[in-house]
Write a structure and sequence with these properties.
- This protein is α+β, with helices and mostly antiparallel strands.
- The protein has two domains: 7-117; 134-280, no CATH class.
- It has helices at residues 20-23, 57-60, 62-68, 72-90, 107-116, 118-128, 147-153, 167-174, 183-216, 254-264, and strands at 7-14, 36-38, 49-55, 95-97, 103-104, 131-140, 222-226, 240-250, 271-279.
- The strands form two sheets. Strands 1, 2, 3, 4 and 5 form a five-stranded antiparallel β-sheet that branches. A four-stranded antiparallel β-sheet has the order 7-8-6-9.
- The chain is globular.
């Protein structure tokens, strides 16, 4: 430790409901730091509050985070702790999640930002009241042949008989049926079949996306389209992710939303629709504005 004052780590904006402080008792966040709340410091009706921890400056300054964010073990543990605090909050109040590593130089700077954006935060919390986020993903089913599979399945090139092979064995090699496909033709046929099957699956994926949009529109209040997940860690038994949407759904329509999405995938055998949730509304959060005059106060910039 170098003696620098601690930074203020903000997990979320929460509605300032009675008993909120009691709900945070014993809750630990990033770095096993205790979790508490920071109010705007103004008298009056309950106002949005920041849910915070204090973290060591030498471990959370921007230059330190550059290297720590390359440590996947540290990053996963920190993300889990951050998410755990937010999920615990959702059991007690309305929550506006903020990004990982939303930091302020100290409590005074955090409180100042909270006061400046109090009206915007209050409006957003009102929007999220009695709603939850649901994720909807579309996968093209796994199991499609790859080029490597085709190479493996293509007929092997015939080998010439050895120079000392019997004459009738040589004759057998030279009198193969003329209509047998050559290895090259078999390969091209397999590639064409693969191409057509892939086109069919993408057509089914578009149909699934259209159905999802049609059934979700009357049941959700807001929607966000995220980039499809790519890379080797996202493939496997799930298949290829081609749609990655989030919907904000009123609690009273959640059951109908799930039922409608279950039906949307019927009749599309090459497609799998996955619905997850309810989640805290990460996709519909509104992060605080970045102060222009102080590089130390950069909420969410490092996520």
């Amino acid at each position: 430790m170098n003696g620098e004052p601690d930074l203020t780590y903000v997990y979320a904006v929460a509605a300032g409901t009675p008993g909120l402080d009691e709900s945070l008792t014993g809750l630990r966040g990033v770095g096993d730091a205790p979790v508490t709340f920071l109010d705007p410091g103004r008298p009056g009706s309950p106002a949005p509050v920041f849910v915070v921890s204090r973290v060591p400056a030498d471990e959370w300054r921007e230059e330190a985070l550059r290297s720590r964010f390359e440590d996947l073990g540290w990053l996963e543990g920190t993300a889990r702790a951050h998410h755990g605090v937010i999920q615990a909050l959702t059991e007690h109040t309305i929550v506006l999640p903020l990004r990982l590593a939303t930091l302020y130089q100290n409590d005074d700077r955090a409180r100042e930002a909270l006061r400046e954006q109090q009206d915007a935060f209050a409006a957003r919390l009102a929007l999220l009241a009695r709603h939850a986020e649901y994720g909807v993903k579309v996968y093209i089913a796994a199991g499609a042949a790859t080029a490597d599979d085709i190479h493996a399945e293509a007929p092997a090139q015939p080998t010439a008989p050895a120079a000392d092979a019997p004459h009738d064995q040589a004759r057998a090699h030279s009198t193969a049926p003329a209509d047998d496909p050559s290895p090259g033709k078999a390969y091209l046929r397999a590639r064409r079949a693969q191409h057509h099957a892939r086109e069919d699956r993408y057509l089914q994926a578009r149909q699934a996306a259209d159905r999802i949009a049609a059934v979700a529109a009357p049941l959700a209040t807001h929607a966000v389209r995220h980039p499809a997940q790519t890379g080797p860690l996202t493939r496997g038994e799930n298949g290829e992710n081609v749609l990655n949407d989030a919907y904000l759904v009123p609690d009273e329509k959640a059951e109908a939303f799930r039922a409608a999405l279950d039906k949307a995938g019927q009749g599309l055998p090459g497609i799998r629709i996955e619905v997850t949730g309810p989640w805290a509304p990460y996709s519909f959060a509104m992060p605080p504005a970045v102060p222009a005059d102080d590089p130390d106060d950069r909420p969410g910039a490092r996520s």
